[in-house]
Every structure is written in C-alpha cells, then in structure tokens.
C-alpha cells in the first residue's frame, strides 16, 4: 500500500484566502460574471433555503451557468498566475516536497472549482487533485455539480473512495486542513495536522493530540 499526504487548499495551502472568491472577483472585473449572474446566484440560494433543499451556499455555482468551458479554463489559468500564486504558502510547498522525498504521494482535496484545482496540481507538482467537479453540457457549464462536493462529509467520502481506488494506507498517511468542518476528513488518517486552524479545530486538535501548524 502507498502513503499519502493530503492537503486542503483554501486557507491551508492558500494563506487566508479562498481561491474561488478571488476567481469570482477576477471574473466580475473581466465582465464574464455579470450582475445578472450574481442575481441568479442569490435567487437560487434563497429558493433552496425556502425549500430546505441543499441550502449550503458552497454548493451553489449558478453564477457560472451558461459560461463557456474553454473560456473559463483559460481565465482560470490567467487568474491563477496573476492573482492566486502570490498567496500560496512557501511553507506548504516545503512540506509537500518534504513528504514527497519521504515517499508519500501528494494529494490535493478541496471544495474549490476543478478549473482552479487543475492549476494548483500543476504548480504544486501534486500526484492527484480533486476539486468541485462542475457539470458540463455541450461545452457550457450548467451551474450544477457533477459529483460529490469536497466539503465536510463529502470530503471524507472522496478520500475514502480514493483510498480504496489507489490502495492508500490511511493509518500511515497525513492530512492537512484548517476548518472545523474538516474534522471527519482529518480523523481518517493516522497523522492529522490542523493548519492555520480556526479556533474550533485548533481546540479539538489539542484535545485529541493532533499536530498543529501554521503555514
């Protein structure tokens, strides 16, 4: 079996930032995401809130409905180079390299958009990268998710599936994340690390003897 070092992205590899929020701001400035798209996003959220159907705002990608896939991928690459790379932690990159030299495969597992996760994979020289898989139909985005969202229990399920597929020894693997919602995900490995942790996760980590780090 192989060993893995599994890294969250936002607020873990990326210092105090959400890559999707940076990208939305970039797309707004370029005129690709319009006021109409933002109104649709808010309407979708309120509709699901009233119906109690999938109310979590992180699942709502309706602001991307109808966007050309190739255009979005190209803009993701430009945004990554210009706006996102400056926030990537050098300490996180050092930790990845250290783990890789020790025989671990590097896995990125994040709820951020798959077009951004692709950029992170190349930049960080990761072996595997899993993000929010956006549904594509006839070259356009539908604003819906195609698979499990890598957040909370969803992130833990994706790690479980990956471990079975690649025969990863989770007991001898590492996981790095920042948020209280990552506890189930972090608990799956033998070496959980709370990175740049919110207060709730930091307290939980200390109570359970987990490592705590700041990148």
Per-chain topology:
Layout: E1 4-7, H1 19-30, H2 35-51, H3 69-84, H4 90-101, E2 105-113, H5 114-124, E3 128-132, E4 134-137, E5 140-145, H6 153-166, E6 174-177, H7 183-187, E7 191-195, H8 199-207, E8 211-213
Parallel strand pairs: 1-2, 1-6, 2-3, 6-7, 7-8
Antiparallel strand pairs: 4-5
Helix pairs in contact: 1-3, 3-5
Provide an overview of this structure.
- The chain has 215 residues and is of the alpha/beta class.
- It has one domain (4-213): HAD superfamily/HAD-like (Rossmann fold).
- Helices cover 45% and strands 19% of the residues.
- It has helices at residues 19-30, 35-51, 69-84, 90-101, 114-124, 153-166, 183-187, 199-207, and strands at residues 4-7, 105-113, 128-132, 134-137, 140-145, 174-177, 191-195, 211-213.
- A hairpin with a 2-residue loop joins strand 4 and strand 5 (140-145).
- Helix 3 crosses helix 5.
- The radius of gyration is 17 Å and the shape is globular.
- It starts with a strand and ends with a strand.
Short description:
The protein has helices spanning 19-30, 35-51, 69-84, 90-101, 114-124, 153-166, 183-187, 199-207; strands at residues 4-7, 105-113, 128-132, 134-137, 140-145, 174-177, 191-195, 211-213. With 215 residues, the protein is of the alpha/beta class. It has one domain: HAD superfamily/HAD-like (Rossmann fold, 3-Layer(aba) Sandwich), CATH 3.40.50.1000.
